Amino acid sequence: MHDIGFVRSNLDLVEAKLRARGADPAALLGDFRSLDLRRREAIREAETLKARRNELSEQVGQLKRQKQDATALMDETRALKDKLDDLDKTATALDDELRLSLSRVPNLTRDEVPAGKSEADNVTVKEWGAKRSFDFEAKPHWELGEQLGILDQDRAAKLSGARFAVYFGPGARLERALAGFMLDLHTEKHGYTEVLPPFMVNSKSLFGTGQLPKFAEDLFRTSDADAESAANGEFKDADHWLIPTAEVPVTNLYRDEILDETRLPIAFTAYTPCFRAEAGAAGKDTRGIIRQHQFQKVELVKFVKPEDSDTEHEKLTRDAEEILELLDLPYRRVLLCAGDTGFSAAKTYDLEVWLPGQGLYREISSCSNFESFQARRANIRYRASGPKGKSEFLHTINGSGLAVGRTWLAILENYQQADGSVVVPEILRPYMGGLTTINKQNF
User: Fold this and answer.
1) Strand locations in 26-142, DSSP E?
2) Omega before 402 cis (within 30°)?
3) What is the pLDDT of residue 129?
4) Longest Cα pair distance anywhere in the chain, in angstroms?
5) Which residue, among 179, 147, 131, 192, has the nearest Cα to 428 in the 3D structure?
6) Residues pairing with 241 in the sheet
7) Which of 11, 97, 213, 443 is the most exposed place for a label (fewest CB within 10 A)?
8) Strand, coil or helix: what is 334?
9) Which of the two residues, 94 and 208, has the higher pLDDT score?
10) How many helices (H) and strands (E) does the chain have?
11) In terms of DSSP H, where are the helices of 104-152?
């Protein structure tokens, strides 16, 4: 969320950055100048009346001490109180309207983020690995998984509907192996602390990371959560939503807290299920497990000082890339253009893995620097060391390290053999009980 004072002083910049995202500033900000002016005028008038009320109170006290009639001044004081109450209500209502408007305004992208409206305008900044050549026609993962008997979307649909999957035998174990491998690498080598957070959160948590109020329709909620109220910025402590990513509970661990500077940077990793309604994805990726209502992901989250966020963003992205390199999965790093950058992010790298069965690259990780945007929404600060250290908003960074299901399908497509079997990457074999090849199963 943006600071009102910053937007007021830099409105032209804010509007230009919104247009670079392909957004309409007027639709998001409304008449910001008029609304802000009316709010400040109400506050100024209230302050003037409060000063007059205090002055009258002193005069009333003097007259009473002198045993003189103070009725007229007391009547004026009561009239001022009624007017002050109205002004306070007006100022509060204008402030709420202004903050709700600002809560729907996305982060401002960095200057180095390229202009553009869609993924077609993203810029590839790195490519790694050689694409495998096959002497047979490579199959997509949904055919491989079904023929091997390790992936069943029809039975999942019977259980839960579309966009769900059931894994069997070595398919289920491969998912578990990938999660264990990723967590071990991030904790033992990269220095992250593992966290197991709740899989349901309240509206305040989703507001903190930027999913609410704008994206309520993309979330799954329990019966105690009111989506309409949340979309209007009205949050209840007792409501519950299923997490769309571990970013939400992990980032909000420090909501409304002030951390000591010496604790930074803090790096967490978490393996959780993720739940997404995919309301805006009707008809997209209906085959396979690219876009699911439930999937598992290993998330990386960092809390850092502002001056360190660029360096830490690069480090986190490299930590995610190392997973792909150790699995020998060809990928590319893409700098997202302004129009394709997520709501809360100031700069994002997508890692896209090569899928030979489909002949294309697909996102497998999105690594973002949010700067102070999420910290402002969640009120996460740090205090500089020393007796006169001031508190300020820290920066948050996160990324997938990696999306487990998409890594699973990338292994199937890249390690497939002519007979339909799939070779297990060498580094995963200890996690697979020594299994070297996934052959056809019968369940």
Assistant:
1) 123-128
2) yes
3) 97
4) 108
5) 179
6) 201, 221
7) 443
8) strand
9) 208
10) 14, 17
11) 141-148
Residue-by-residue DSSP string for 221-270: B-TT--HHHHHTT---TT--EE-SSTHHHHHGGGTTEEEEGGG-SEEEEE
pLDDT tens column, 291-317 = 999 999 999 999 999 999 999 999 999
Residue the block writes with tokens 């769309």 = 244
| Lowest-confidence pick of 11-15, 206-210, 255-259, 388-392 | 388-392
Number of CB atoms found within 10 A of residue 399's CB: 26
107 CB neighbour count, 10 Å cutoff: 25
Q: Is 42 or 177 the better-scoring residue by pLDDT?
A: 177
Amino acid found at 365? S
Residue 77 near residue 56 (C-beta atoms within 8 A):
yes
Q: What's the whole-model pTM score?
A: 0.89
Q: Tell me the pLDDT tens digit for each residue of 22-32.
A: 999 988 888 88
Give residue 389's pLDDT: 80
Token representation of residue 350: 């997508």
Spatial CB neighbours of 139, under 8 Å, sequence gap ≥ 6:
147, 357, 413, 416, 420
Cα–Cα distance, 323 to 181 (Å, whole number): 9
Closest CA to 303 of 230, 237, 240, 395: 395
Q: What are phi and psi of 70, to 5 degrees?
A: -115, 20
Q: Look up residue 380 and give its two tokens.
A: 């996460």
Rounded average pLDDT over 62-70: 78
For residue 252, give both structure tokens. 């909000």
CB 180 within 8 A of CB 407: no
Q: Are 408 and 414 in contact (CB under 8 A)?
A: no
